[in-house]
DNA sequence: AAAGTATGTGAAACCCTTTACAATAGAACG
DNA sequence: CGTTCTATTGTAAAGGGTTTCACATACTTT
């Protein structure tokens, strides 16, 4: 049926091992023989069998990409195609393939990871999320299996975890300071799922900035929501029902901001005249909102690219020590923030 | 090092073949033996080696997913995570894994597909796009390798291609008719890349509706753009520069519509008062535009789900004949279309 | 008691490559 | 001319399973 190395060997009247060596371009084979074998390979249309190769080599040249639980809509966030594009680019350069997780629940995902690892289906794994107390991460760490995190481990004292992250604490702090400088005092924080480390870092940055400015953190101004659009919308309802409405919002994610802005517009609250908004990620469409949103570009593509780089490095040099990469972020000022004029909003 | 089937066999004092039979739950093994072997597997923490299995079985339980050329931004369209979610769900149900293409250019992708197929890395392939004269499709067809298309082959006379598609012709026709009923006569069409079959189908539907209504199709009203946001923006510039501006726009994709609406808002052209818009896909955020957009829901998730279903069927029953599945679409009326009042726009 | 039939198990071949080791031939050397 | 190198190629085992075939039981049947 299929053309194997033996067929090529026969056709070129050499031993299978010779063919194998020609494939890996071993210097121990004479040029004459190489030519002869290559000719035969072309004639017969030979392609190496991937599985046999992996088996003999104990290496798959494949990296496993673990997406978060896809039950909720988080998944539709353009964040994912973009990280994957980054991962994909680097992987392709180094001739690695990508194997995607398909599990829907945390439990399913965990099982899948076990299979990937124990079944030697991939050489390493990239986790596209960082959760607090993540079973998957714990497992990979225990198994001493090559992996990198996008984000950071919740407990940074855990040694030996490579990750690539933004300085989310700093980004959130800066963003809050920016709003403070614009004269805002009642700044609310609309976070994502609290199980994710990024949410915690954002919140800490926000708190710190407020503390530094001597402003008391008001619990009513801090809300969390898992779902992207719906979450954004519910957050707005909660916040706008307060007797003292916030004058500015820090929102965890651009997509959530779309939800927020939609709801605000239904309530006829004008952005940025009545309320300022700043969010995170700068996905492609965030410049297309009405008005275009001010957000923090976190360089999603690089996050993926560097994660792949780190991982493959680890695969190739297992004894290399863990590295942490910080991808720079950058505030992109567009049109959802405005300076608060002193007297103005005194009348609530 | 790793626990193999032989270790299990020894521990349970049976032959390796017996262990193998237990794994595949063969009816020829007594329950007592099965229990004994399973106990041993658990004790030793045995997991079957995937590559060895694939090699012996000649089957990988993996399906290859080919994304379009990721050089341009098309990729960031939330369409992709959503189809993949559909594919992923079905694949997971039937215990198939997903292997993703990483090539950036058409040429790279083609090579990759060749490797996947010849190297027996996957059991079947799903093409996430349908292009005119697609080399990849041609190749898969020639090789008689199991694959399904999302979209449809340009040349439908090619026998034996399974695909899942929307009736894009009909959707575009309906949408055009809808605008006609609202009193629009100057309806423009902003299409995607003309290499994609979907673009052609949309255009044909549009033309047909106009013809049926006895309205001459004006070439100036038909524009195409590859890029999503930029494309949308450029299209608007072109159309709004015409002496007779269109009163309604049919846009190929929701993301593009975001670009269109952004540009329109910069020009201070009001949607829907000055111009009506209707587009396709209904991705998650399309309800979050300002105003929320009227669009055609094409059920992206099902597209993926059914494609996986079709493919796996084909893999399992190679002699089954090719099937075509049409996923129903549905117009979602939101707020970007309005009735044209007779007298109104006469003054251009 | 002999023959026939399930049922359970083991040995060995096979899937395709890689690789350690062996073998051969020709070149260089004394 | 015999010996030692060196360059090149071959042989066989390993990598971890699956599958076929044949054999050994135990149980019916006549």
TrEMBL record, chains A, B:
Source domain of life: Bacteria
Record InterPro entries: HTH_LacI, LacI/GalR-like_sensor, Lambda_DNA-bd_dom_sf, Peripla_BP_I
Domain HTH lacI-type: 3-57
One Pfam family here: LacI
Gene3D superfamilies reported in the protein's UniProt record: 3.40.50.2300, lambda repressor-like DNA-binding domains
Alphabetized UniProt keyword annotations: DNA-binding, Transcription, Transcription regulation
GO molecular-function terms, A-Z: DNA-binding transcription factor activity; transcription cis-regulatory region binding
Name of the protein in question: LacI family transcriptional regulator
Source lineage: Bacteria, Bacillati, Bacillota, Bacilli, Bacillales
């Amino acid at each position: 049926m299929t053309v194997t190395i033996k067929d090529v060997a026969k056709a070129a009247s050499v031993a299978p091992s010779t063919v194998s060596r020609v494939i890996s371009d071993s210097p121990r084979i004479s040029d004459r023989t190489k030519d002869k074998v290559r000719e035969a390979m072309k004639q017969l249309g030979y392609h190496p069998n991937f599985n046999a190769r992996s088996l003999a080599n104990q290496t798959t040249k494949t990296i496993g990409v673990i997406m978060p639980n896809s039950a909720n809509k988080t998944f539709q966030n353009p964040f994912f195609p973009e990280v994957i594009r980054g991962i994909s680019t680097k992987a392709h350069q180094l001739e690695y393939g990508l194997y995607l997780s398909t599990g829907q629940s945390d439990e399913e995902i965990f099982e899948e990871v076990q299979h990937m690892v124990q079944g030697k289906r991939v050489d390493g794994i990239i986790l596209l999320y960082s959760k607090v107390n993540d079973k998957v991460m714990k497992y990979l760490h225990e198994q001493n299996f090559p992996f990198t995190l996008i984000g950071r481990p919740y407990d940074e004292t855990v040694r030996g975890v490579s990750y690539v992250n933004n300085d989310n604490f700093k980004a959130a702090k800066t963003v809050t300071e920016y709003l403070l400088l614009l004269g805002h005092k009642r700044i609310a924080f609309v976070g994502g799922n609290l199980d994710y480390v990024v949410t915690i870092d954002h919140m800490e940055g926000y708190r710190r900035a407020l503390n530094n400015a001597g402003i008391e953190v008001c619990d009513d101004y801090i809300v969390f929501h898992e779902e992207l659009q719906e979450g954004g919308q519910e957050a707005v309802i909660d916040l706008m029902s307060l007797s003292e409405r916030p004058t500015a919002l820090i929102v965890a994610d651009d997509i959530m901001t779309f939800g927020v802005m939609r709801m605000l517009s239904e309530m006829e609250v004008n952005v940025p005249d009545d309320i300022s908004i700043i969010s995170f990620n700068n996905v492609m469409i965030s410049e297309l909102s009405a008005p275009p949103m001010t957000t923090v570009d976190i360089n999603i593509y690089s996050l993926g690219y560097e994660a792949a780089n780190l991982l493959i490095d680890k695969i190739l040099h297992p004894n290399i020590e863990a590295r942490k990469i910080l991808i720079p972020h950058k505030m992109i000022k567009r049109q959802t923030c405005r300076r608060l004029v002193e007297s103005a909003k005194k009348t609530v």
